């Protein structure tokens, strides 16, 4: 037969069920079997050469074409390749005598085989790398050995052969050593660490609120505000004054004498700074604590009836479990900072002192006005009346001040000097200071009474400040007259 067919191979993709596939190139039947090779390739490119009679059978037609039939259908999407596989052998034997000395059929068959072998080589040559026709190079070798593992093939610097190198070293401008440390990072987190942009420590992690802010388009006289979690919008900036934001400003709880019963009751204002009191309330100093406005407020109930000339610290308290809010009073102790922990009502574990009150000799609450942390008496209190003061003698003076806290007291005083031709300076100062001698103060001369002098001084926890006198002439006897105007509570949050 003649061979005019130029087809070299047939390729198919398995559908998972078909077993019969045609070949459209010439196949011979020889002693070793049919001259066809069947190959299947899986999804990762691994090839498997199938065996005639084991994996498939061949049906050959008279024209040399035919089909192969798999005994088991190839796997879905696996590639099927049918190739000519003519062996490089010569099986035609010419007989030197007899009537078939040069039989045409045998000769033609031999030529057919040679043609098929040539076609087979042609198909292989189409799949190999070759040099251009103008090249004079030869003996090109693939440098494949263990030392070149994980490297790539490149043309050497002379352009005469192949060599291997690292991917990062290719070209006339290879990447820097720093970028090489980035290329070998296996994960995004490793790459971010190399770049110095680790999320959470070197750059801000994604935040829905920030993303919402970034998504706004700025405009004149607009302000951003949240419409929900991770959602923002713009609104007009207020062009005129407003009291809209006053409820968000600090509004501390204050105390005051109750208007109806100022001698026994204290009003707590509503406030939102520190401890929150949503609604104003009144607590009684003349009754043991009971929850609610208008009820008793004494924590240490054994102090009822009210102690005379005593301090009561005023607390706003809350129960974190129930959310209940209330107020009450703790009897102050001279020289000891107040702590209501042991006498608070059950469940009320949160507290904050909002001021202190003082009773008089009848046990009534002294009248006062509060402005921030300043408490001024109404009327002022005459704490010292004709009290003697020795020269160069520091003396602690107990005034009408809250016991157990430090205050800055504001006083007006004058002195009366007795003794022929005598004169002196008298002065008040902080309880913590030591002034064995003084050089100024209220001036007094025998027979004359000068105007009052205003001073302030910081008390100790026992409601005391210090006084002293220095003699200027003679041997004076000094008597002090002092009015207590009020004080600043130095430990009250405001």
Model description:
This protein has 494 residues and is mainly beta. The protein contains 4 helices and 29 strands. The chain has a 5-stranded antiparallel sheet, with no helix packed on it. It has a 4-stranded antiparallel sheet with strand order 1-9-5-6. Strand 3 (29-30) and strand 4 (33-34) form a beta hairpin. The mean pLDDT is 86.
Q: What structural class is derived from the secondary structure elements?
A: mainly beta
Give, in spatial order, the strands making up the sheet with the most strands. Answer: 21-22-29-24-27
Number of strands: 29
Amino-to-carboxy terminus distance: 114 Å
Strand content: 35-45%
Low-confidence stretches: none
Over the alpha carbons, how many angstroms does the gyration radius reach?
54 Å
- Helix percentage: under 10%
3D shape: rod-shaped
- What integer is the average pLDDT? 86
Instruction: Give me the number of helical elements.
Output: 4
How many strands, which pairing sense, and closed or not: the largest β-sheet?
Answer: 5 strands, antiparallel
Write a concise keyword list for the protein shown above.
494 residues; mainly beta; five-stranded antiparallel beta sheet; 9% helix; 36% strand; rod-shaped
What topology does this entry show?
Blueprint: E1 9-13, E2 20-23, E3 29-30, E4 33-34, E5 36-41, E6 47-49, E7 56-60, E8 66-70, E9 79-84, H1 104-125, E10 152-155, E11 162-165, H2 177-183, H3 188-195, H4 208-214, E12 222-228, E13 231-236, E14 255-257, E15 265-268, E16 281-288, E17 296-298, E18 311-318, E19 325-331, E20 350-358, E21 368-371, E22 374-389, E23 395-398, E24 407-418, E25 423-429, E26 442-445, E27 453-458, E28 464-473, E29 477-489
Parallel strand pairs: 16-17
Antiparallel strand pairs: 1-9, 2-8, 3-4, 5-6, 5-9, 7-8, 10-11, 12-13, 14-15, 15-16, 18-19, 18-20, 21-22, 22-29, 23-28, 24-27, 24-29, 25-26, 25-28
């Amino acid at each position: 037969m003649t061979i005019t067919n130029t087809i070299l191979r047939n390729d198919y993709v398995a559908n998972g069920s078909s077993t019969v596939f045609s070949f459209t190139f010439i196949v011979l039947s020889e002693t070793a079997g049919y001259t066809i090779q069947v190959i299947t390739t899986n999804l990762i490119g691994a090839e498997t050469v199938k065996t005639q009679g084991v994996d498939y059978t061949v049906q050959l037609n008279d024209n040399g074409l035919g089909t192969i039939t798999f005994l088991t259908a190839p796997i879905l999407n696996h590639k099927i390749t049918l190739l000519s596989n003519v062996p490089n052998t010569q099986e035609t034997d010419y007989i030197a005598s007899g009537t078939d000395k040069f039989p045409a059929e045998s000769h033609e068959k031999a030529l057919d085989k040679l043609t098929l072998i040539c076609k087979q080589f042609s198909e292989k040559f189409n799949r190999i790398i070759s040099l251009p026709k103008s090249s004079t190079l030869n003996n090109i070798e693939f440098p494949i050995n263990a030392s070149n593992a994980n490297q790539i093939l490149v043309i050497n610097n002379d352009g005469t052969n192949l060599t291997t190198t690292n991917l990062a070293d290719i070209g006339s401008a290879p990447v820097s050593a720093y970028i090489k440390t980035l290329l070998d990072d296996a994960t995004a987190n490793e790459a971010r660490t190399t770049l110095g942009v680790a999320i959470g420590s070197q750059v801000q992690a994604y935040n829905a609120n920030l993303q919402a802010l970034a998504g706004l388009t700025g405009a004149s006289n607009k302000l951003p505000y949240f419409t929900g979690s991770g959602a923002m919008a713009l609104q007009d900036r207020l062009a005129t004054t407003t009291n809209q934001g006053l409820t968000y400003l600090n509004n501390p709880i204050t105390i005051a004498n109750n208007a109806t019963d100022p001698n026994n009751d204290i009003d707590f204002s509503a406030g939102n700074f520190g401890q929150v009191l949503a609604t104003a309330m009144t607590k009684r100093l003349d009754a043991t604590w009971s929850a609610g406005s208008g009820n008793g407020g004494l924590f240490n109930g054994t102090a009822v009836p009210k102690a005379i000339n005593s301090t009561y610290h005023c607390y706003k308290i809350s129960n974190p479990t129930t959310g209940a809010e209330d107020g009450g009073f703790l009897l102050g102790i001279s020289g000891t900072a107040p702590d209501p922990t042991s006498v608070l009502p059950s469940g009320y574990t949160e507290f904050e002192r909002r001021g202190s009150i003082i009773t008089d000799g009848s046990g009534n609450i002294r009248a006062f006005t509060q402005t921030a942390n300043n408490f001024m008496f109404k009327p002022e209190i005459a704490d010292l009346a004709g009290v003697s003061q020795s020269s160069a003698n520091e003396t602690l003076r107990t005034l009408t001040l809250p016991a157990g806290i430090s205050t800055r007291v504001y006083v007006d005083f004058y002195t009366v000097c007795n003794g022929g031709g005598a004169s002196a300076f008298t002065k008040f100062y902080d309880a913590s200071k030591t002034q064995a001698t003084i050089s100024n103060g209220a001036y007094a001369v025998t027979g004359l009474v000068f105007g009052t002098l205003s001073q302030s001084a910081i008390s100790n926890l026992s409601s005391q400040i210090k006084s002293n006198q220095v003699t200027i002439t003679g041997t004076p006897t000094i008597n002090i007259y002092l009015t207590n105007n009020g004080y600043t509570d130095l430990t009250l949050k405001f």
